[in-house]
TrEMBL record:
<protein>
    <submittedName>
        <fullName>Cadherin-like beta sandwich domain protein</fullName>
    </submittedName>
</protein>
<dbReference type="Pfam" id="PF12733">
    <property type="entry name" value="Cadherin-like"/>
</dbReference>
<dbReference type="InterPro" id="IPR013783">
    <property type="entry name" value="Ig-like_fold"/>
</dbReference>
<feature type="domain" description="Cadherin-like beta-sandwich-like">
    <location>
        <begin position="74"/>
        <end position="165"/>
    </location>
</feature>
<dbReference type="InterPro" id="IPR025883">
    <property type="entry name" value="Cadherin-like_domain"/>
</dbReference>
């Protein structure tokens, strides 16, 4: 309360319904208007008038401010490829998934629980409920980081997704000689053996 400025400033927790607050006002005057103990809408400042016993009046301006939200949770997180393990839960912050070698990039779609919060994917701001830009994947493990910042600007929560990209599979084909070629080689070997026997 600022007696000199005749103002009263109050802060209530986030989520408080300021449209029907019931103030209790203690005063030394003869009366106060609006009446104390009666619900009022404090979306905007409310002026209270205190009347003294000598009928003199003094006005006070009461302002109620809601605190910023400290909710830094995600309500959902999805991938363009692969499946989160374990399944998403806002209290679980570490996930893994595997993709084939043919998946060279991936996008993440984070959705914040409180619409006033902001979110980044690998340091880049992403609108809630929208896919991030494509993130290139190396073979083996890739760590992706999702950071949610609450409306209060100080509360944060970090989610990590480790994406493992499979290595390239190389197929080795063995060429076999045609059957006719093998038969010819066998006949040549027999002829060579016959010639050797005659020479002996």
């Amino acid at each position: 309360m600022d007696e000199g400025a005749k103002t009263i400033a109050l802060t209530v927790s986030y989520g408080t319904d300021v449209t029907a607050l019931v103030p209790t006002i203690t005063h030394t005057g003869a009366s106060v208007s609006p009446n104390t103990g009666v619900a009022h809408n404090f979306t905007h400042p409310v002026i209270y008038t205190v009347k003294a016993a000598d009928n003199s009046e003094q006005q006070y301006i009461v302002t109620v401010t809601r605190a910023f939200a400290n909710n830094a949770d995600l309500s959902n997180l999805s991938l363009s490829s692969g499946t989160l393990s374990p399944a998403f839960a806002n209290t679980t912050t570490s996930y893994t998934t595997s993709v084939g070698h043919g998946v060279g990039s991936i996008t993440l779609t984070p959705t914040v629980a409180d619409h006033n919060a902001t979110v980044t994917v690998n340091g880049t701001t992403v609108p809630s409920g929208h896919a991030s830009g494509a993130i290139n994947l190396n073979v083996e493990a890739n760590t992706l980081t999702v950071v949610v910042t609450a409306q209060d600007g100080t509360t944060t929560k970090t989610y990590t997704v480790i994406v493992t990209r499979a290595g390239q599979v190389v197929e080795v084909l063995r060429q076999e000689a045609p059957v006719e070629e093998l038969r010819l080689q066998q006949r040549n070997q027999v002829r060579a053996q016959v010639r050797i026997q005659w020479l002996l």
